[in-house]
Automatic annotation (TrEMBL):
It comes from the Bacteria. The keyword Methyltransferase applies. GO terms for molecular function: RNA binding; RNA methyltransferase activity. Residues 197-500 form the SAM-dependent MTase RsmB/NOP-type domain. This is rRNA small subunit methyltransferase B. Keywords: Methyltransferase, RNA-binding, S-adenosyl-L-methionine, Transferase. The keyword Nucleus does not apply. S-adenosyl-L-methionine binds at C308, A309, G310, P311, G312, G313, K314, E333, D359, D379. The active site is at C432.
């Protein structure tokens, strides 16, 4: 860092660095008139009032940090408990998700503005600063509101750091987001470091994602992908087919690709009003389930298995498809509470659909598997690198060392699925990760171990046949890799395989 950029803000609010002092004061220009800075219910602290939405966001950040909480599970509970109205719930969500997603960038900015590494900043003060930087640089919150509310949070949660929080945020506020990004880029050692700090992704994830794009000859799309990971995904819905619902286009705006998917102005009202037949589900997940159910015409009496079914999103769609075609779906899940979620998800489909609780690696041994299955979905446990926009803290929790353990499990689950398939039966191997070790690596391992037994099916043709409009797919014909930046879906990987009939076909 140049001398000009050393020296950090002095306690008392003066930034001290000319280079970071470019933006004068707060609330000027387009920022004036935005009401997000100060609306909503407030709680009095020792010194002032703080909007409850910010308290909720900070408490979720603390739980993510200290208790390994999942923001997408905890935040709705905290919003409910704080009785936030729709607008404040939206603000709390944007604050929480945006701050968690952009943490890498914000930490780098805070390090510059505070002139100290983040591991030398009190964790509560650091979370307050991250929330403040998000408001200053990524939301249209007026400077005075972002700083005052952050100082108010500091009075309540980190009273020893109020002056520090005030000073750092005032320094941040004096320069634009673009100016900070220029400084971050100048400090980066190489291209991956630059992308890492600008798009808030760990470098190992950038390398993994680029490798997956490179396999398609589309490595140049990496920046678009990383940016898409930082955008809030649309709330996408599925209308379970065959259950008497209007067409997706009558319920809302039909998806581009999934024939059973749509978006709507009031998605949660629609979910609440249709007793489980309308569900929140990513469009890519819908295509993955339909790739299996529609790969070939369904023969009445077929037996299907969802091997790793929790929490049951794809199982619900498969159960509806099975009911329509006269097939039976069995679901399996290793974790009992997640098996309960599968039961809930299946409740809307009026048919018998057993839910087993157990390790999928032993599925061939359970009595329900006697006679085998005609179709199996293996939506494998994976790093989830394809759904980073939905799980905002995930990118900071995962590590490259997770990958070998997961690919080993994926291989064992594929082997179990093949053992449980009938000759001629179809396996859909699916991951919500594009990491090539988890996609082509696990798939290639299975093809090698089961040479002569497994046949790859034209997955791309099947998925294109299911889709409303043609997908821009760039891989080989036997696999489909979907992408957030290209398709607006999670980065689902789908490969269809057939177990050869040893008698000859
Ligand atoms: C990617 S998720 C499946 C998502 C699901 N198909 C859906 O659409 O809602 C993988 C699931 O596999 C479960 N799982 C992990 N290890 C397993 C195992 N050995 N046997 C069965 N299920 C397992 C996890 O608990 C998790 O619920």
């Amino acid at each position: 860092m140049s001398d000009e950029r050393r020296g950090g803000p002095r306690q008392g609010g003066e930034g001290g660095r000319q280079r970071h002092g470019g933006r004068q004061g707060g609330g000027s220009g387009g920022r004036q008139g935005d009401r997000r800075g100060g609306s909503g219910p407030r709680r009095q602290t020792s010194r002032n009032y703080v909007a409850l939405s910010r308290i909720v966001a900070l408490e979720v950040l603390q739980a993510v940090r200290d208790d390994e909480a999942y923001a997408n599970l905890l935040l709705p509970v905290r919003i409910e408990r704080a009785k936030l109205d729709r607008a404040d719930a939206g603000l709390a969500t944007e604050l929480t998700y945006g701050t968690l997603r952009r943490r890498g960038t914000y930490d780098a900015i805070i390090e510059l503005a505070a002139d100290r590494p983040t591991d030398r900043i009190d964790p509560d003060a650091l979370d307050i600063l991250r929330l403040g930087v998000h408001q200053l640089l990524s939301m249209r919150v007026p400077t005075h509101a972002a700083v005052d509310e952050s100082v108010g949070l500091a009075h309540k949660f980190a009273p020893w750091a109020t002056g520090f929080v005030n000073a750092v945020l005032r320094t941040v506020s004096r320069s634009t987001a673009e100016q900070w990004e220029t400084w971050l880029a100048e400090d980066a050692l190489d291209e991956d470091g630059r992308l890492s700090v600008l798009t808030s992704h760990p470098e190992w994830i950038i390398r993994a994602l680029r490798a997956a794009l490179d396999r398609e000859g589309r490595g140049e799309e990496i920046r678009d992908l990383l940016d898409a990971d930082n955008a809030s995904p649309r709330v996408n819905l599925v209308a379970l087919p065959g259950l008497g619902l209007p067409e997706p286009a009558e319920l809302g705006t039909a998806d581009s690709y999934s024939p059973v998917g749509f978006t709507a102005a009031d998605p949660l009202d629609l979910v609440a009003g249709h007793e489980g037949r309308v569900r929140v589900q990513d469009e890519g997940s819908q295509l993955a389930a339909l790739a299996l159910s529609r790969a070939t015409p369904v023969r009445p009496g077929e037996r299907w298995l969802d091997l790793c079914a929790g929490p049951g999103g794809k199982a619900a769609l498969l159960a509806a498809e099975a009911l329509a075609g006269g097939a039976v779906l069995v679901s399996n899940e290793a974790v009992p509470v997640r098996a309960d979620l599968v039961r809930n998800a299946l409740a809307a489909v009026p048919s018998e659909h057993p839910v087993l609780v157990g390790d999928g690696r032993a599925i061939a041994d359970v009595p329900e598997s006697a006679g085998g299955y005609d179709r199996i979905l293996l939506d494998a446990p994976c790093t989830g690198l394809g759904a980073l926009r939905r799980r905002p803290e995930a990118r900071w929790r995962k590590a490259p060392t997770d990958v070998p353990e997961l690919t080993k499990l994926q291989g064992e689950l594929v082997d179990a699925a093949i053992a449980a398939l009938k000759p001629g039966g179809i396996l859909a191997y699916v991951t919500c990760s594009p990491h090539t070790a988890e996609t082509f690596g696990s798939l290639g391992g299975a093809l090698a171990r089961h040479a002569g037994v497994l046949e790859q099916l034209p997955t791309a043709e099947v998925v294109q046949g299911v889709a409303n409009t043609e997908l821009d797919l760039a891989g080989d014909p036997f696999t489909v890799q979907l992408w957030p930046h290209r398709h607006g879906t999670d980065a689902m990987f789908i490969a269809l395989l057939r177990k050869r009939d040893v008698a000859g076909s």
